[in-house]
Write a structure and sequence with these properties.
Helix content is 34%, strand content 19%. The chain contains eleven helices and 21 strands. Helix 9 runs parallel beside helix 10.
């Protein structure tokens, strides 16, 4: 072999060439092994805390999901024009939207509410939410939200995952994927129901195409949210640790040639999390530790309010202990769906949710937690200004209201408007993707940079859309 050295040619033997080349190959191999080890380390600990993309304003999110679709024009978006147009056909200028129940040809229906302005900000709230009304200066009421779905299954799915079709990761899963765990003894993403099963079920807190370990953990209702935290009689903690270690070893051997099986990895991690929760879980969910005054603040002294009040109090305790994302369903199983008798339906669910939510806002603020906890209230859509079945309202994804509080956002304001009858967003419209982009931004995550390679495409939470709700940022 010839090798030019300076102005001279150096003659090397075949053996020398392969010896030196082999050293280079060894270095490449070591580099590859190191890369694989780093990759393996990431796989071995997907819940490791990760740095945010920018300085976050929020450490955690409490999402108050009013499932079924609360009526914005009966709660936060007063429409005096409806009083004048009550009983009349919808004006042609507003068009005839296709609704979940068919072509809208029913007459306009007034909102028989008593409205008042509250707080220094003078925000309007109806008599259905008198307790929440006392906290308007801590709220940003976004009146111009938009979604794509007409029915509950698709719309609940979109509000959770960004798409009306199932299969994508939920917002809580994206947050967990992007930031990792803030604690090692409790789930990072918790779901709480108050009544029936959510329309669409667990797909609404699924990890989708993300690794399964990022999916939400549903707590049970009642006095025992987490089952089986105590060891069986006669089984010590050391014995259980030994069994879990042995089970982990068996699973790891089985997984050697199944690196893409995220379900198996999630199962192994769930065993370990359950073990850690045996020490901290009982204390976290033990509401008897709370004072009677606190329990009353959340309405737990009222049997009608007790279930949702318990969940709101649980949410405060969880974020206090480092849980990043807590989703609470009020009226789970489409309770707010008021195609008929909206007066009876909303009177019930507004009463169920009003005092507990007000108690949550007051409690978070008193404990200094509201400044870095983002509270989101809303449903999958709003309701129409025309009647359904005479005394109800149909689904309205074209213009509806949510509110946000905490996390240093600009509060005491309304954002955007709907038209004069509350059918469509006309000023500063914000889509579900915009809501999601804003939530992620407040947690320190850029929705365009939070990606996961799936089927050859770099998928992100907001799919192809998403902009920040700029009015929320001071």
């Amino acid at each position: 072999m010839l090798h030019k050295l300076g102005h001279h040619w150096n003659v090397r033997s075949r053996r020398e060439f392969f010896t030196q080349a082999g050293s280079g190959l060894a270095a490449l191999a070591l580099g590859a092994l190191a890369a694989e080890e780093a990759k393996g380390a990431g796989k071995a600990d997907p819940m490791a805390s990760k740095p945010p993309h920018h300085e976050p304003r929020a450490k955690s999110v409490i999402w108050l999901f009013m499932e079924g679709g609360p009526s914005h024009i009966d709660l936060f978006d007063p429409k005096p024009a409806l009083d004048k147009l009550h009983g009349k056909p919808m004006p042609e200028s507003f068009g005839r939207p296709i609704t979940a129940m068919g072509t809208a040809n029913n007459t306009l229906m007034a909102a028989p509410r008593k409205w008042k302005q509250y707080g220094k900000s003078g925000l309007w709230v109806s008599d259905w939410y008198p307790h929440i009304a006392e906290h308007v200066d801590d709220l940003a009421v976004i009146r111009s939200c938009q979604a794509d779905g007409l029915n509950h299954v698709g719309s609940v799915c979109q509000m959770n995952t960004g798409d009306i079709l199932a299969g994508r990761p939920s917002m809580g899963a994206w947050v967990t994927y992007g930031l990792g765990a803030a604690n090692r003894n409790l789930p990072t993403f918790v779901v709480l129901l108050d009544d029936k099963e959510v329309i669409g079920g667990p797909k609404n807190w699924s990890s989708g195409f993300l690794p399964a370990t990022f999916q939400g953990t549903q707590f049970r209702t009642g006095d025992t949210p987490i089952l089986h935290l105590k060891n069986p009689k006669g089984v010590s903690r050391e014995q259980q640790r030994s069994k879990l270690d042995f089970l982990k070893e068996l699973n790891e051997r089985w997984a050697v040639d199944k690196q893409d099986d995220s379900d198996l990895d999630a199962r192994v991690r769930s065993y370990e999390l359950a073990y850690q929760m045996q020490a901290t879980g009982p204390e976290a969910v033990d509401l008897t530790k709370e004072s009677e005054a606190t329990r009353k603040l959340y309405g737990m002294d009222d049997p009608d309010l007790e279930s949702f009040g318990r969940n709101c109090l649980m949410a405060r305790r969880l974020v206090e202990r480092g849980v990043r994302f807590v989703e609470l369903y009020c009226g789970s199983g489409s309770g707010w769906d008021a195609h008929n008798n909206i007066e009876g339906n909303h009177s019930k669910w507004c009463r169920v949710s009003d005092k507990p939510i007000a108690g949550l806002l007051a409690d978070l603020k008193a404990r200094g937690l509201l400044k870095d906890t983002l509270v989101v209230w809303g449903g999958e859509f709003g309701r129409t200004p025309f009647n359904e079945k005479g005394d109800g309202r149909d689904h309205n994804p074209w213009g509806f209201t949510i509110f946000m509080a905490g996390a240093g956002i600009k509060t005491g304001q309304t954002v955007g408007t709907t038209d004069e009858i509350g059918l469509r967003a006309v000023e500063a419209p914000y889509h579900v993707h915009d809501i999601h982009a804003t939530i992620l931004h407040l947690l320190g995550l850029n929705h365009t940079r939070l990606t996961h390679l799936h089927n050859g495409r770099a998928e992100r939470p907001t799919i192809n859309g998403g902009k920040l709700i700029k009015e929320l940022f001071v």
